[in-house]
Amino acid sequence: MIGILEDDVDGRQARFREALKELGPVTYYDNAPDFLCWLAQNLASLRLLSLDHDLGPSRDRNGERFDPGEGMQIVDFLVTQRPVCPVIVHSSNPVRSPTMVRRLEEAGWSAERIVPWGDDWIGTVWVARARQLLK
To answer: What residue ranges in the chain does DSSP mark as E strands?
Structure first.
């Protein structure tokens, strides 16, 4: 199973869905709190994680303000767990992204960053690397 944290549902998530059709089951979340709940139940079955950092501003959810959090919250959880799969950080945040990768590596996870660039980076650079990591 592949887990993807990405808040751009109509843009990047749609591109991930297209690029990942043949790579097996994929679960998507657009916020850290829900993704953390899912991870706690599914960590052992993961083959790959891909994390964004910036998940947008607080928004309305079920009539209340909801803070979607940030990708670093996922890293905070992962560094307390036994590494089970590679992690790609697919964020353009120039400060937090390298920190996410460094913290994961220090905790024994295989982690790397793919910088979003242009319109087709998911269908080219990201999916090519994901295929390599899934072998």
So the answer is: 2-5, 26-29, 48-51, 59-61, 64-66, 87-89, 111-113
Burial of 25 (0-12, 13-18, 19+ CB in 10 A): exposed
CB–CB of 76/117 below 8 Å?
no
pLDDT attached to residue 119: 81
Residue with tokens 């994961």: 104
Contacts of 132 (CB under 8 A, 6+ apart): none
Which is more confidently placed, 102 or 18? Answer: 102
**What digits encode the pLDDT tens for the residues 77-88?**
999 999 999 999
What whole-number distance in Å separates Cα of residue 72 and Cα of residue 53?
6
Alpha helix locations (H) across 3-126? 14-19, 32-42, 71-78, 96-106
Q: Are 71 and 51 in contact (CB under 8 A)?
A: yes
> What are the structural domains of the chain?
2-134 (3.40.50.2300)
Q: Are 116 and 92 in contact (CB under 8 A)?
A: yes
Q: Per residue in 16-57, pLDDT tens?
A: 888 888 787 889 999 999 999 999 999 999 999 999 998 888
